[in-house]
């Protein structure tokens, strides 16, 4: 087992267990936040796994997750807005911490790949991950309330 | 030692699946289902089947919760209309 897979295991265990605990307990608002953070916690793990197995094509999974994860969260923000009325689900400290961790992982994998098209792809994934996560968190906390009716 | 990551993924999937069954509210079930979809995709990746993981990611993380949530909303609206008619 090399260091990349070890890091992925630690990230998977920590992030996955925390997300699972958050999504199964507590009020609906907390569950939605935990579901949102699942994407941000597991996408870097997929990147680390791709690097650890030495298979650049596995990066596609992380790309798809970074693209679709926020979409899933937006679905919940839109369809659960009656339940979330009045409470503003947000955990900004956690959100920024997870986003920073994703950025660190992307930077580390970028440094390992070296310049080229693969690095551009990794940077796109990082931008999608951090941007999508912040947008989804804002949508959950009710920043786009005008768009959410109906 | 590569089995450690497989074990972690398996345990997480088992935990998430059990939790999804144990929830009572369909909306909360959909939230757990979405997490389960992502975890299953990770498990497939760890087992060296990323093509299965790709489709699982699209279906499990977005499509299934969307279908469940749309049905829940429709049923809630129908129930409310019926209550209003009485």
The number of distinct β-strands of chain A equals 0
Average pLDDT, all residues of chain B: 90
Major sheet details of chain A: none
**Percent range for helical residues of chain A?**
over 70%
Tally the structural domains of chain B. Answer: 1
For the record, give the distance between the C-alpha atoms at the N and C termini of chain B, rounded to a whole number: 65 Å
- Give the CA-based shape of chain A: elongated
Low-confidence stretches of chain A: none
Strand content of chain B: under 5%
Oligomer: heterodimer
Please report the distance between the alpha carbons of the first and last residues of chain A. Answer: 51 Å
The Cα radius of gyration of chain A reads 16 Å
- Name the beta content range of chain A: under 5%
Helix content of chain B: over 70%
Keywords (chain B): Cell membrane, Membrane, Transmembrane, Transmembrane helix
GO cellular component, one term (chain B): plasma membrane
Membrane topology (chain B): Multi-pass membrane protein
Organism (chain B): Streptomyces misionensis
């Amino acid at each position: 087992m090399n260091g990349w897979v070890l890091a992925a295991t630690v990230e998977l265990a920590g992030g996955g267990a925390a997300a699972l605990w958050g999504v199964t307990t507590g009020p609906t608002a907390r569950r939605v936040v935990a579901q949102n953070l699942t994407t941000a916690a597991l996408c870097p793990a997929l990147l680390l796994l791709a690097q650890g197995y030495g298979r650049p094509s596995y990066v596609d999974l992380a790309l798809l997750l970074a693209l679709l994860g926020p979409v899933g969260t937006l679905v919940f923000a839109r369809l659960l807005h009656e339940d979330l009325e009045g409470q503003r689900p947000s955990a900004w400290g956690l959100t920024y911490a997870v986003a920073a961790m994703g950025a660190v992982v992307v930077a580390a994998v970028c440094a390992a790949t070296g310049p080229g098209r693969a690095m551009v792809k990794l940077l796109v994934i990082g931008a999608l991950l951090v941007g999508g996560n912040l947008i989804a968190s804002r949508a959950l906390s009710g920043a786009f309330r005008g768009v959410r009716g109906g | 030692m590569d089995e450690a990551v497989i074990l972690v993924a398996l345990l997480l999937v088992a935990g998430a699946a059990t939790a999804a069954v144990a929830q009572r509210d369909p909306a909360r079930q959909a939230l757990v289902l979405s997490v389960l979809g992502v975890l299953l995709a990770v498990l497939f990746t760890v087992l060296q089947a990323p093509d299965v993981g790709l489709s699982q990611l699209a279906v499990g993380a977005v499509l299934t919760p969307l279908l469940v949530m749309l049905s829940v909303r429709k049923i809630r609206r129908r129930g409310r209309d019926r209550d209003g008619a009485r």
